Amino acid sequence: MAEGEVCAICASPRRDRSRLCVVEKPRDVVRLEATGGYNGLYHVLGGLIAPMDGVGPEKLDLARLRRRVAEGEVQEVILALSATAEGDGTALCVADRLKEAAVRVTRLARGLPTGASLDYANPGMLADALRGRQDVG
Q: Does 137 fall in a domain?
């Protein structure tokens, strides 16, 4: 998505520079932008840690992520990664690498999709929904 070091989205002065959303691939940026609900910056890792496929942390763009956070403008890193074993492992690795930074690390909420019935929810979805519950009112 970028011809240089930074894409047009992150180069825009109208973006919230205090939030950095970490995604697996460029098309994830397109999907998040389509929601109209996020106005921060993005960081594309270029994949997920997948030991069975020979993909370790060294193959992801983690060094540049750490540099961006170290610059000091970012206050929150949002991990928008797949809800899979690889996504969870990658999220833990990213959070661990950012421990020394004075930055909040969050993750997208998981659980029941809008319009879903409990009849069709699997135990993992229900467990995620219970952990991510929110106050009403």
A: no
pLDDT digits (tens, 9 = 90+) for 32-76: 999 999 999 999 999 999 999 999 999 999 999 999 999 989 999
Count structural domains, the chain.
Answer: 1
| Residue tagged 């219970």 (tokens) | 130
The CA distance from 78 to 38, in Å, is 11
Report the CATH number at residue 78. 3.40.1360.10
pLDDT per residue as tens digits for the range 65-122? 999 999 989 999 999 999 899 999 999 999 999 999 989 999 998 888 888 888 888 8
Residue located via tokens 């002065």: 13
Task: Round to whole Å and give the CA distance between 16 and 49.
Answer: 28
C-alpha closest to that of 66 among 107, 96, 28, 27: 96
Helix (H) or strand (E) holding 19: strand 16-23
Instruction: Give the domain extent around 78.
Output: 9-131
In DSSP terms, 107 is beta-bridged to 79
Q: How far apart, in whole angstroms, are the C-alpha atoms of residue 131 and residue 137? A: 18
Residue 4 placed within a domain: no
On whether residue 3 sits in a domain, the answer given is no
